[in-house]
Design goal:
Layout (H helix, E strand, L loop, with lengths): L9 H15 L8 H14 L5 H11 L2 H10 L11 H18 L5 E7 L5 H12 L6 E8 L2 H9 L1 E3 H4 L5 H7 E4 L2 E4 L1 H4 L2 E5 L12 E5 L9 H14 E8 L13 E6 L2 E6 L1
Parallel strand pairs: 1-2, 1-7, 2-6, 7-8
Antiparallel strand pairs: 3-5, 4-5, 8-10, 9-10
The structure holds S-adenosylmethionine.
The site of S-adenosylmethionine has 25 residues, from loops.
Length: 275
Amino acid sequence: MATELPGIHTDNYRFLREHVYARTGIVLDEGKHYLFETRLLPIVRELGLASINDLCFLLRKSGATEVSRQVAEAMTTNETYFFRDPCQYEAIRTILLPRLIKVNENTRTLRFWSAASSTGQEAYSLAMLLLEEGLGSWKIRIVGTDFCSAALERARRGSYQQIEVNRGLPAPMLVRYFRRSGVNWQLNDTVRRMVDFEIGDLRDSMQTMGPFDLVFCRNVLIYFDSETKRKIVGELHGTLVRGGWLLLGGAESVFEIDEWFERETVGSATVYVAR
Ligand SMILES: C[S@@+](CC[C@H](N)C(=O)[O-])C[C@H]1O[C@@H](n2cnc3c(N)ncnc32)[C@H](O)[C@@H]1O
């Protein structure tokens, strides 16, 4: 018989983990009750339900598509900030951009992808870096994709709280590219227009994406099992030009990546160069 764990019945806990895995690919280990509770209680309240167990009953009974999506989205971790892992941006500035400028002199076109862009800081950091490097007149396409529609909505607005601009964004860039808007900071239209945000699940086929000169896929593979990781890395490779860069999170490493990428150390950053 199922034992009762604080708040969530054991079988409901299993059901929720399976639900999140099926919808997002995210593997949540045993012992993450607190995480489900903090993330799902707002949905429980919004729906006027009494508990997470009632929410599970609703999900099981009707399949409740909208609620099912909401639950999956609530379990994603959207943590991000401007110029996260600065050494990677430094590698882009000093090594990749000079190379790309030379190779693409004729078309003056550059293409980038922030896969798992969350609330947009990664894609916008790159856009600002490109402007700082004098590439404002080039045809630049930056695509940001994420599974989480709420995060993408925020990314599109380009409006950030004081605490968010305090994290990683150099003060001169705040002055140059943002203006005060009430208690928030609004990113200017020049930077916003450089990035298109779209819904995207990394587990889907990427055949229509690319070709890109650089893909960020940072701090997201850690949530997947090794089979999913491998599939995603292979697909990402297919979206890059030969010699294009894949950047993973600073603390991430992926086994079996060598089939598609060559690891290179640039300053303090590790970059994966498409074979
Ligand atoms: C921790 S954030 C990383 C944000 C940014 N890349 C960074 O490194 O700062 C992880 C993001 O991955 C997204 N995500 C999780 N599962 C996903 C999936 N299957 N497909 C696309 N995005 C996913 C989440 O919604 C979340 O916004």
